Amino acid sequence: MILLFRKYFQRFLCFEERPGQSLILARSSKGEELLREAGEKGYLKTEDYDISALGRIQQYQQNRRRIVGARILALRLSGKFYPRFSGFYLRHNALRAGVKNNFFNLFGMLKRVIQMKAR
Questions:
Q1: Between the CA atoms of 4, 61, 79 and 114, what dihedral angle is there, to the nearest 10 degrees?
Q2: 31 to each of 1, 3, 35, 70, how far by Cα in Å?
Q3: CA distances (Å), origin 2, targets 38, 41, 43
Q4: What is the 3-state secondary structure (H, E, C) of the chain?
Q5: pTM value surpassing 0.70
Q6: How many CB atoms lie under 10 A from the CB of residue 108?
Q7: What is the pLDDT of residue 87?
Q8: Which of 116, 99, 108 is nearest to 74 (CA)?
């Protein structure tokens, strides 16, 4: 599997069209092989990328992954259907989100569930 992101050298990702670079992540050995072959054949210009910088570019997505556990817990507490994730390290990510962020997302989701019941 291969993922493709538009990457700009700014603090946040910008969705306006302008010159930039594409960040391509190989998530399997087959994807890595395809990227390597494309680079060797000259279809792509490739260079190494410090993956730890991805969180600064994709801040919204990083935060969503951290707080999804609190939202799922709210759905479970209210007896609603909730998605089941495997491989997402929900507890680990929740710890990285912090108590305050988890608290607001848990109670925000509970509030939305209650409002949906009232309709």
A1: -130
A2: 5, 9, 6, 33
A3: 13, 18, 16
A4: CEEEEEECCCCCCCCCCCCCEEEEEECCHHHHHHHHHHHHCCCCCCCCCCHHHHHHHCHHHHHHHHHHHHHHHHHHHCCCCCCCCCCCCHHHHHHHHCHHHHHHHHHHHHHHHHHHHHC
A5: no
A6: 14
A7: 81
A8: 108
Q: Which pair of tokens denotes residue 35?
A: 């990227």
Query: In degrees to the nearest 10, what's the CA dihedral of 14, 61, 3, 23?
Result: 40
Cα separation, 2 vs 27, whole angstroms: 6
What is the Cα 68 distance to its own chain's centre?
Answer: 10
Amino acid of residue 64: R
Q: Which tokens belong to 52?
A: 């730890």
Q: pLDDT class for 1, splitting at 50, 70, 90?
A: very low
At which residue do the structure tokens 């999804």 appear?
68
